[in-house]
Every structure is written in C-alpha cells, then in structure tokens.
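A protein record pairs a chain with a discrete description of its three-dimensional fold. The following entry can be read in just this way.
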Amino acid sequence: MRATVGDKLVQHGRIVGQHDKVGEIVEVMGADGNPPYRVRFQDGHEGVCSPGPDTEIRHKEDAGRPIGQ
C-alpha cells in the first residue's frame, strides 16, 4: 500500500451498520509512500495509522475518474 500527502484513507466498517471512516493523509511517515500515515479524519482529530485489510487508499489524482478505469 502506497500513498502521498492529500490522498484519502478509507477505513471500512467492520460490522453491519458501521459507517466508513474517511480521512486525509497529512504525512507519510514510512519510506517510499509506505505506512504509517498521519491522518486527519472528518471529525477533526488526527492519528497515526498503519492500514489493515479493511482499509483502502483513494489517490487524489483518481478523484474524478470513474471506478474501474
């Protein structure tokens, strides 16, 4: 998993009814875009994340591109 500053980190809900948690990557702390990442979430708090299998990175250059292209 690789990311750059400005990409979105999406942590998918693990149980039915739990909403996804979306944040913006504000710092890449690993080498070559690898985790851990400092993330600012929509509610304003920041945290350091090492993403797991329930997480995806949405790259900022893909923001306007339809899914699957």
The mean pLDDT is 88. The beta strands are 8-11, 21-28, 37-41, 46-49, 55-58. Residues 7 and 50 are 15 Å apart (CA to CA).
